[in-house]
Write a structure and sequence with these properties.
Length: 156
């Protein structure tokens, strides 16, 4: 199942479960996870992106270690809500993830997640170098927190 609806994912996972968020870039994949009760998103590692087979193997390790029940994939919409080539690439990646892991995939609007993560990291006095290394995983945590708030709170 691939959906853009928190309500559909909530119906598919009535008992909750850990989620894995992915901020898909052209060179890296930022990861974040949340607890099974959908309370707190935590930034994970930033993976170097490669061919899907390599990505799949590295993601499988995280999925198995965290007992992930679904994936939240950032959908990079334009500011006006339209979709460009990056959004279409994310949709194709979602289809690959769904086929590889047979887990539900929630596509989640990631607009402003990187800016929000950068602001938070500056507020925590991260150096430029550390921000550059960790921005993608922190952005994944930002939009994952939005998704779990919608899932847990019943916001559609």
């Amino acid at each position: 199942m691939i959906t853009e609806s928190a309500a559909e994912l909530r119906e598919a996972l009535p008992d909750g479960g850990a989620l894995l968020a992915l901020d898909l870039g052209t060179k890296t994949i930022g990861t974040a996870t949340c607890d099974a009760g959908w309370q707190f998103a935590t930034a994970g590692t930033t993976l170097e992106r490669g061919k899907f087979g390599r990505d799949r193997d590295r993601l499988r390790e995280i999925i198995e270690a965290r007992r992930v029940k679904a994936i939240v994939l950032g959908l990079p919409r334009n500011m006006d809500g339209s979709e460009g080539p990056r959004a279409q690439a994310s949709r194709a990646y979602a289809r690959n993830l769904n086929a590889a892991f047979e887990l539900p995939v929630l596509l989640w609007d990631e607009r402003w997640s990187t800016a929000s993560a950068e602001r938070d990291m500056i507020g925590q006095d991260f150096s430029r170098r550390k921000r550059a290394e960790r921005i993608d995983s922190h952005a994944a945590a930002v939009f994952l927190q939005g998704a779990i708030d919608a899932l847990a709170g019943g916001i559609l």
